[in-house]
Queue: 3 jobs
Job 1
Amino acid sequence: MKPGIATPAAVLTALLAALVAALAAAPAALAQDAAPPQDASPPRYVVDASWPETLPNDWILGQVAGIAVDDRDHVFIVHRPRSITADEAAAVQNPPTAECCVPAPAVIELDAEGRVVQAFGGPTWDRERAEWVAPAHDWPLTEHGIFVDSERNIWIGGNGEDDHIVVKLDANGRHLLTLGIPGETGGSNDTMRLGQPADIAVDAEAGEVFVADGYGNRRVIVFDAGTGAYRRHWGAYGERPDDAPPGTYAPGNPPARQFRGPVHSVALARDGRVYVADRTGNRIQVFAQDGRYETEAFVAPATLDAGAVWDIALSPEPAERWLFVADGHNKKVWILDRETLTVAGEFGRGGRQAGEFNWVHNVAVDSRGNVYTAEVNTGKRVQKFRLAGE
C-alpha cells in the first residue's frame, strides 16, 4: 500500500464510524431544534386606536366590566347599562335633551375587525317611565365578568349587593342556567349560594365551571358546568375559607391566610393550573384544579386601597409563557413570566388618550397574541393592543 492511500476496508470503517456519530448526535440536534426560544424578552404592544369600529344605532357603553375572546377571535364584552348617565344617554330622555346617545345592550359580540356581530341582554330603558326594566330571566343588577366557553355559551357574574348569581346563556342570549340564588348569600362555605361573584372560567374537558367568589365571599367554588351541581370549593392556600376580616393590608406584613378580596379573577391554564386574583392582597395564588395550593406571587405590593391584581389572562402559545395582569389602581397591564411569576414588562399608564387607562378592569388575549382591555369607573371603553411590529 502506498503511503497516504487508504484501503477499501479502512474507508468503509471510517464511513461507518461517521454514520454512528451522526446518529448519536441526531437526538440532541432534534431536541435543540424543538426547544422553545430562550429569549426572555416579554412581548411589546402598541395600541390600535382604530379598534373597535364606531358602534351602530348611536349606542354608548357604560362601565365595561368583562371582556372575553372565543375560538374565532370574536371579542365579547359585558357592560353596565345602569352606569350610563342621563347626559350620556341624552337621546332617550323624555324629552330628549340631545341627539346622542342610546344605551347599548349589555352584551356585545365583536369580530376580529371590531365590527358588531350581535348584541343582547341586560336591562332596557323605559323612556316613558324613566326607569330601567330588568329582563324576564335572571340577570345581575351590576354586571361583573364574562366568559365564553368552547360551546360558545356565555357566562356572566354580578357583584351587586344583592346579586349573588352567575348566569349561563347560549350563543344567542337565551338563558340556560343560574348558579346561586338571586338575593341570597350564605357565606364562604355555603355550597348553594354565592357572594357577589366576580369572574368565571370553564374547563370544557372536565365539564366544570370555576367561579371567583367574590366580593362578598373569600373563595373559589366549582360547579358542574351542565347541571350546576356543586363540586368543591377552597380559600387561600387551599384551606377552608374564613369570612372573618383579615385586618388592614400593610406592605411588608405577613400575607393574610385568607383572601383579602375581592376574589376578582380566576383563569385556567392548559397544564391544569388555576390562577386566582386576590385584588387588595396584591397577589396571585396558584392551585391545582382540585384546590391544592402550589405557590403565590405579589404584584406591586406597595399598592393600597383598590389593589393591584384585578384580572388575569394567559398568552396563546402552547406553553402559555406569559400572564397578563390588569391593574386598575396603578392603571396599567403587567406582564409576568408564568413559571417564575416575576414581572417581565408592562404597558399603559393613567390617562384618557388611546393606550392609556382609567380603571383597567379586565384583560383578554386572542390567538394571535393581541390584548384587549376593558375599563370601569369613568373609563367606559374597550381597547385593543397589538404586538409591536405586526
Note: DSSP finds one helix and 28 strands in the chain.
Job 2
Amino acid sequence: MKLRKLTLMTGAMVLLAGAASATWDVYKPLFELGYAEPEEDQLVHIPPTLEDLEDADMRPELKAVIRRGHDLFVDTQQLRGRHVFNDLNCASCHMDAGRQPFSAALWSAAITLPDYRGKNWQVNSLEERVVGCFTYSMNGKPPEYGSDTMLAITTYMQWLAKGAPVYPDQEIYGRGYGSVDEPEQEPSYERGKEVFAQRCSICHAEDGQGLKQDGKVVFPPLWGDGSYNWGAGMSRINTAAAFIKHNMPLGQPNSLSDQEAWDVAFYMNSQERPQDPRYTGDVHETREKHANFHGQTVYGTVREVDGHLLGDHDNTGEKGFLRPEILRSRTFD
C-alpha cells in the first residue's frame, strides 16, 4: 500500500463500525499509521476507484463526466487564470483524489448537503460548497452554477458517495480532518518555525513556497500569493492542526505530536496570504463581522515576533478582484 493511497478495497461499500472483524482487516494499514479505529455505530464508506468505474454498468457518457471531474480535481491547475489564481489543486487538501478519511473526503459532503453553513449563515448546496472552495482555497473565480466544469466536479463527488445513505443518522467515520486535542501549551511561533524547518521544509521549502518542476506544482506553497487566502478554512489554526496531524508529513501521517501539529499550524498561518474576499476595507471590522470564522485564525491580530498586523492590506494575489460576483446570499423569510 502506498502511504498516500487509500484504495483498500474494490467497489463502494458502506459498513457500520462493529461489523465482522475480518471486514476491518482492510483498514489495518491505516490503523498501523496511527489512524483511529471506527467507533461503535459510526458510518464507514469505502469510495469506488477509477478501476471500479471502468467495470460499472452505467452510460459511457456519465463515465466520461466522472472521469473529467476526477481529472479537474487532481489537476485543478488546468483552470489557472480562469477559475484558479494560486498554485493549489483540489487534491492538495483532499488527499487520494478526495477519497481519504481525515482528509475531507468528498463523499461525506455529497450525502450531507444541502445543509446550513455558519461561514455564510445560510443553507448551502453541493455546488455552493464547491464555489466556496474556489473562492477561498483556490483564491479564484468559481465556475458558474450548472457549467460543464461544475457538473463534472459535483458528479465526481456524488459518484464517490455511491451506496452511502443520504443524511445519515450515524456519525461519519473520518469526516473532515478530524480533530486534535487541545495543546498542553499555547501554540508557539518559534516552536512551529523549528518543526517546519525540520519536518516540512524539505517539501514546502524554507520560505514556504513549495516546489515546482518544469512549471508544474509538485508541493504547494503554504503562504504568500500562491497559497490559499485569509478566508480559506485552512487558515484556521484548529483546522490546519488537524490536517497536519492526520496527513503530514506526506507519507508519515500521525507522526507529529499534537503540540507539534498546533505549533506548525500556528507558524504557517501566521504568514501573510491574499486578502479574505469578504474584506470590508478594514481588517478589524472584517474580523469582528466574521468572528465565528476568524476566531480560529490570527487574521486581524498583531504578530508578536515583529509587530505586523496580519491581513492589513489590499493584496488579492494573482487575481484582479476581491470578491467573486457569483457569491450570493439567500433567505426564505
Note: The longest helix spans residues 189-204.
Job 3
Amino acid sequence: MRRHESTQRPNELRFFPADEANAFSKVECARDFDRANFGLPVGGIAYWRSISDCDRKTALVNPMKAIVYCEYGSPDVLKFEDVEKPVPQDNQVLIKVRAASLNALDAYMIRDAWLNRLIFGLRKPRDTRLGRDVAGQVEAVGKNVTQFKSGDEVFGIGRGSLAEYACTLERALVVKPANVTFEQAASVPLAGLTALQGIREGKIQPGQKMLINGATGGVGTFAVQIAKSFGAEVTAVCSTRNVDLVRSIGADHVIDYTKEDFTKSDQRYDVIFDNVCNHSFFKRRRVLTTKGICVLAGMGGAGVKGGEAMGRIVGNLFIARGLSSFTNQRFAQYMTKMSKDDLIMLGDLVQAGKVRPVIERTYNLGDAPEALRVFDQGHARGKLVITIGEASR
C-alpha cells in the first residue's frame, strides 16, 4: 500500500495494492470522502439519510441477475437478486459478463469496519455491487467509444462485475487473446497488475535472486511466473500443501514456512516481494543484499483481519519504510494502476504460455456468496473464479 499521490494522469486508474490487489481506487476514495461532507452539518445529515439501490422500489425495466449487498457484515449479507441492467455512458462499454474473479477488495468492502463505513457509506453501503475483475463480450458501446464494437471479447476492470452485465470505461479494457478462456482472462487483472508492477518496483534483473513471500495466492502465483519470465532466480515461500504447486509454476527453490523461517537462512536476495509482511524490518533486512529491495506488496490477503492487519500496516507502511531511509536497502511501496499496456502484456504472457493463471475453483454466479465465504477464510490457492453462462471457450 502507498500514500495517495497529489496528481493523477487522466487515463490512469490507481489502486492501493495488498495481496489480491486489495485496494481502493483513488478516484473512489476521493469522491466518497467528499460526499461524506463531514464538515457541514447539513451535508452530514444528508449523508446519513442517503439511500442505496436497495432502497429503490421502482419496477425493473430490464432486469438482470447480480450479487448485491445492502448491509455490512459477513458473506452471509450477499444476495443473488434481480437488478436493473446498466446502460453505458458515452465513454463506457457494456459487457455481457462471462467470468469474474474474487479479490481481497471484495471481501474487505462488505466487512463492518469503521474505515469501510467512512469510505463506502456511513449507515449502509452506497455502492451495493461487488466485483472488479471482468471478462466477457461487448454488448454495446457509448457514442465516444472507438476501440471496441459489439461482439468483441475483452477483459479488464469494471465495477459490479459479479453480474450478468457490467459497464466499464473503455480505457479499462483490452482484447482477450483468442486462445485464453474467459475464466483465465478474468483471473488476471487486479492480481496480475499488482504482481507485474510490484516486480518492476523491485527493479529485478536477469540472474538476480528474488524471494516471494506468499507465493500461492492470486498475486503470488502471478508473481512467481512473471519474475521467471524476467529471468530471475525465484525462491517461493509457502505452506507444505503448496510446495508442489509453486514448483509446477516455475519456482527454482521452495521454502516451507511451517518448517523453516526464510529470515534465518544464510541466503541473500536482491529482491524480496513480500505479499504477507509478517516479519520485522530487521529480520527482512538481514536476508537482503547490501542494496537489496523489499517490495511491500501485501498484508496477507483476506484471511488477515482486525488488529493483526493494522499491526502489519503500521509495521510496514511506517516503521519499515521509515527505517529503510537510513540504510542502502530499500523497503518500497507502490500503487497498482490500471494500465492498458500492462494488461496487454499480461495477456501476451498468458497467450504465450509463460504465465498460467492458477484457478483453484470456479463457481456459478448464484454461488458467489459461498465463494466469497471460502475466500474470506484465507489460504486460497491462486484465484476463485465466478462463471456466468458459457465461460470456458
Note: Confidence is low (pLDDT under 50) at residues 1-12, 14-47.
